[in-house]
Every structure is written in C-alpha cells, then in structure tokens.
Amino acid sequence: xxxxxxxxxxxxxxxxxxxxxxxxxxxxxxxxxxxxxxxxxxxxxxxxxxxxxxxxxxxxxxxxxxxxxxxxxxxxxxxxxxxxxxxxxxxxxxxxxxxxxxxxxxxxxxxxxxxxxxxxxxxxxxxxxxxxxxxxxxxxxxxxxxxxxxxxxxxxxxxxxxxxxxxxxxxxxxxxxxxxxxxxxxxxxxxxxxxxx
Length: 197
Prior knowledge:
CATH superfamily: Gcn5-related N-acetyltransferase (GNAT)
Number of helices: 7
Largest sheet: 7 strands, mixed
Helix content: 40-55%
Number of domains: 1
CATH class: Alpha Beta
CATH architecture: 3-Layer(aba) Sandwich
Strand order of the largest sheet: 1-2-3-4-5-7-6
Number of strands: 7
Shape: globular
Strand content: 15-25%
Radius of gyration: 16 Å
C-alpha cells in the first residue's frame, strides 16, 4: 500500500534521502558533474534538498516498509514558495560551476515534455526502490499508484527520465514514449505519458 509520507522522523527522512540519492548518483542528469566518484557527494546533497522539498510539500509517497518511494506533483497546484526555497537552497549549496552546468543541460531539455506539460498534468518527480528490495514488484506498485492518482484526477501522468533503461521500464508498465531530446553533452531526455481512459 502506497501512502503520502507524513510524520517521518529526521532520521527516517535522512535515510530515504540517502537511498534516493544513491540511486541518482549514476543518473545521466548529473553527467556534467564528473565521474560517479567525483559527483557522488554532491548528488547526495542535491537529492537530500529535493527529497526534503517533496516531503515538505506533501508530494512524497512511500510504501509501508519505506523501501519504495515516488514523488508526484499536480501541476495545477504546484507549490510556488517551497519551490523557490528549494532553488535557493540549491544555489547556496553548490559551486556556481556545478549550478551553471546543470542549468545548461536543463535549458536544452526543458521543453521535451511541452506536448503535455502545457496543460494540467501529474508529474512523476522520482521513482526509487531500495536496492535490497528491487525485483519484487515495488516499482510496478508505485507506478500503478501514480496511474490511479492520474485517473482519479482525469489528467495525464508524465514521466521524464535521462536513463534509457527507466524509459524502457515505464514503457513496459504501459506508458508511451512520445519525445526524446539529446543535449550537447550527449545525454538524452526521454518523455513519456500515461493517459487515463
């Protein structure tokens, strides 16, 4: 059963942030930050800020064992002030070189989901399963939960990923790949959608 993450202790939130951070260290989004060892600590810090944002805005959902996590944001009610606070934290936590390289990449892939993102939709912020529990259907359960939320709201569910294997997994779970954009660093953004019937 997937529920909104509420009432987590500081140590639980830190543990979740670490699991998600470790999962994103290899993500192509951070390719400009150097090799995996070079970017490891900064990616963990970045994802700690991002996960904290998702938790504080009520957009982080977890399974009962705290081994599966998904972030979901309704574009019709995306929180502005918390997002600005998160951006401020990011800008004050990293070197300008790191921020500039990330912004350069984001600028190039920013409109990859424009076909659906121009109207109300549900954004998947992240999907992560703790490594020791992968292969047990948790990712399928998380994505099904997101589909149910989109169906309940009657809006498209959007997935954006920079990892080909995740794009393939989402397609396997019933999503449609509708766009790809490749940045000048060779990283491809895959945009997928699932639409309620």
